From TrEMBL:
GO terms for cellular component: early endosome. Residues 281-352 form the FYVE-type domain. InterPro entries: WD40/YVTN_repeat-like_dom_sf (IPR015943), WD40_PAC1 (IPR020472), WD40_repeat_CS (IPR019775), WD40_repeat_dom_sf (IPR036322), WD40_rpt (IPR001680), WDFY1/WDFY2 (IPR042234), WDFY1_FYVE (IPR042733), Znf_FYVE (IPR000306). GO terms for molecular function: zinc ion binding. One of its GO terms (biological process) is positive regulation of toll-like receptor 4 signaling pathway. It comes from Probosciger aterrimus. Gene3D superfamilies: YVTN repeat-like/Quinoprotein amine dehydrogenase, Zinc/RING finger domain, C3HC4 (zinc finger). It comes from the Eukaryota. Its main location: other. This is WD repeat and FYVE domain-containing protein 1.
């Protein structure tokens, strides 16, 4: 159960401060306790644990509480020291933690869902606990009375949730790849809009209320930034992961986006530059460069006595092109393409060497990451996953020194 302490290498990459081990199953969620050398974890092994750093430098569980069902989601409100834990059976349980983090008292159970809880948020102002689940719904319940206020159903599993406390807008990502923006009222809700752009299920969301930006990560290995606050619904695509994006966090102070993927990849994206929007793919019955017909264009194939070609798309201009007119590959980071993608030959010629300079840094977490959270004020990150290990990272070498106060690594 003890944690390992690692020495700090002199390089611009995340520094592994501690490794917390001892869980018997997947760690569903891990959260850093603000202003404390401590971590709260929720696991499929049905335990909630509060780990505090001892003088020896090791983490030991000061609280070890066993639940009736595997823990699937968790949120912690530090000012009121309230923990809400979502379970595989659809229930959410609320606890109150003592000031010294050595005792946890049960408060109440919320029958929020009929199936696994996927995400939870707590709003102190309205005293609502809002959650999504694999029963295809979002629910919001009153924490004073414990009663259900409202539910809204989707066509597929609701997988992740973000909430704007000021406007009472909820963002819900689902397994169909769609994001729904809802306005929650006391006993009802209205659908504002749906966002479609991912080709895989939505795995993570992050809402930045200051700039009114929504970031979404998906199983299609990509991230999309949605400009909710205006600018005509502008979207930016970010592609640099080689596995599904499991967690994202936008650091507003330094205009950087931190993302983690299932294969252990940690990416830090520079969002403090003017990026280009990826073009819509154009449709055509023939190559928009050489005008050769595509294989479904029977009439032109017959008229010109030629065989039809496969259709591809240039990622830079969006034109429909054949293989002969798009023989090159190039990265194009300003448009979010951090690794090489298909471009047409004329676009390839227009891309200069400096245009290929990466606008993100990529690091290896060396474990399967299923969940990540950050304490932005201290530049700290905690990751956890199916390997049952929790890792605490100093991110200040890659997310800007202005954040650095850091976990004490004595």
């Amino acid at each position: 159960m003890a944690a390992e302490i690692h020495s700090r290498p002199q390089s611009s990459r995340p520094v592994l401060l501690s490794k917390v081990e001892g869980h018997q199953d997947v760690v569903s969620a891990a959260l850093l306790i603000p202003k404390e050398d401590g971590v709260i974890t929720a696991s499929e092994d049905r335990t909630i644990r509060v780990w505090l750093k001892r003088d020896s430098g090791q983490y030991w569980p000061s609280i070890y509480h066993t639940m009736s069902s595997p823990c699937s989601a968790m949120t912690y409100h530090h000012d009121s020291r309230r923990i809400f834990v979502g379970q595989d059976n659809g229930a959410i349980m609320e606890f109150h933690i003592s000031e010294d983090f050595n005792k946890m008292n049960f408060v109440k159970t919320y029958p929020a869902h009929q199936n696994r809880v996927s995400a939870i948020t707590f709003c102190l102002a309205s005293e609502w606990v809002i959650s999504t689940g694999h029963d295809k719904c979002i629910s919001w319940m009153c924490t004073r009375s414990g009663s259900m206020l409202g539910r809204h159903y989707f066509t597929s599993w609701a997988s992740c949730l973000q909430y704007d406390h000021e406007t009472q807008h909820a963002f819900v990502g689902d397994y169909s790849g769609q994001i729904t923006l809802l306005k929650l009222e006391q006993n009802t809700c209205s659908v504002i809009t749906t966002l479609k752009g991912h080709e895989g299920s939505i795995t993570s969301l992050w809402w930045d209320p200051a700039q009114r930006l929504l970031f979404s990560g998906a199983s299609d290995h990509s991230i999309i930034m949605w400009d909710i606050g205006g600018r005509k619904g502008r979207t930016l695509l970010l592609q640099g992961h080689h596995d599904k994006v499991q967690a994202i966090c936008y650091v507003q102070l330094t205009r950087q986006l931190v993302s983690c993927s299932a294969d252990g990849g940690i990416a830090v994206w520079n969002m403090d530059i003017s990026r280009e929007e990826a073009p819509q793919w154009l449709e055509s019955d023939s190559c928009q460069k050489c005008e050769q017909p595509f294989f479904w264009n029977i009439k032109q194939m017959w008229d010109t006595k030629t065989l039809g070609l496969r259709q591809h798309h240039c990622r830079k201009c969006g034109q429909a092109v054949c293989g002969k007119c798009s023989t090159k590959r190039s990265s194009y980071p300003i448009m979010g393409f951090e690794f090489q993608v298909r471009v047409c030959d004329s676009c390839f010629e227009s891309i200069k060497d400096e245009d290929r300079t990466s606008l993100a840094t990529f690091h290896e977490g060396k474990h399967n990451i299923s969940h990540m959270s950050m304490d932005i004020s201290r530049g700290l990150m905690v990751t956890c996953g199916s390997d049952r290990i929790v890792k605490i990272w100093d991110m200040t070498p890659v997310v800007g020194c202005s954040l650095a106060t850091g976990f004490s690594s004595r």
